[in-house]
Amino acid sequence: MDRVMDETDMAQRMVQDALKLDRQGRVHEAIAAYQAVLRRWPVLADCWYRLAVLERKAGRFGSALDSYQQALDHGIKRPEEVHLNRGVIYSDELQSAAAERELELALALRPTYIPALLNLANLHEDQGRREAALDIYEKALAIAPASPHILARYANARSFDARDDALIARLESALSAEMSMADRAMLGFALGRALDACADYPAAFAAYRAANAASRASRPADAAHYDRAAEVRRIARLMEISPPTSPPSVTPPRGPRPIFICGMFRSGSTLLEQLLSGHPRVTAGGELQFIPYLAQKVLAPFPESIPMTPHHVIEGLALQYIDVLARLFPGAELVTDKRPDNFLYIGLIKQLFPDAKIVHTVRNPLDTCLSIYFTHLDHGLDYALDLMDIGHHYRQYKRLMAHWKARYGADIIDVDYDGLVRAPRQYIEGLLGHLGLEAHEDCLSVPATGRTVKTASVWQVREMLYQRSSGRSVHYERELAELRSYLDGSEP
After folding, report:
1. Residue 452 has pLDDT above 70, yes or no
2. Alpha carbon of 258 to those of 95, 99, 153, 318: distances in Å?
């Protein structure tokens, strides 16, 4: 009996130690602590769950899936949450069929589980299954009719063509109620989108202006605010501390090869990626996090660390990147990495892959800035909540791109969004030639369903070369007058 009590006490102490490390944010130490617990007491389902959460946080997605399965096998309470978490991992890894299977398992256990319903609806949207997504949003609204979040998601999946649409009235009515600023922002962006689609442009801009104000007000207290002077200094450092013009010879790693697509957010990168992925040799990789992770974590302080980083370290990081592509996209030959703000790291990319081609998406400046202002973006994009901050960021981006082009010349390939939607064959075949790829008819359109598209423009991308966003700013000339004047100016 005493031995049993000793074992119980030891297990409790070890679990508490692991939990303490977990709460302190010491992820890798907490993982090791939970693993030590589970080697001795593998029946502890809650520990398998906590281990899985930490492994996912550490980017060990395969291990997290295995640990979540162990939690299920050992009788975890609320198994629907585990299936949801597994579904999210599969979705993030672009394994849509596996994600859908997990979400359906969660809903079989608990049919009214709102998080699983919303993730399943989102998965249908990513796959272009609009009606299926709308059906699930309607089911969720029936369960929680007062939810601003669900109402906004439903409205964003809907199409609008009449100002008297009942859903527009419902959005306006919902916004008259008391709610958090985060909810007000979400509803406001949905309303702005609906009014813009119905050509009520003054009302649409007012809705977007209120939505951005609400989003600013909902920022966490410790969130960064856009600092124009700091941004000017950051761009100057990137220009001053660049890798050598002629990088050392690096043997190309075996495995998938990246095609980097970058530029301003909302400049057409998703459309271009989807068109390129119609080619049998190209796989759409989406917005991969590896390059920003290198700059912000591994090579911090960046770019100051670059001159001191040995060549063998750079070669090792290139191999890691290729390994990530091989794991995510087994068997792929070429994989697009369309993280737009990789334009900040073109110097680093060229150091990792000296032969890399950079596909640079460009678009009318006013259309670009307006589209950012009209999109509910993450607070991490601190410039995106104010029209003039967006304009300032745009000018700094142009300044940096001029620098990269002076250094890397023909390795940076501009693709103009407005030209692309007007003359897709001309632009796509020219780009394929630059990339050493043969022309292919499937690169001239995006199928309505079947390909995963994870972007704010998920529905526009699937329309037959969506052209309504080209020249969109003409509808907002009065509201954009100050921004137009600023973009035409010369000061930093």
Report:
1. no
2. 20, 25, 33, 11
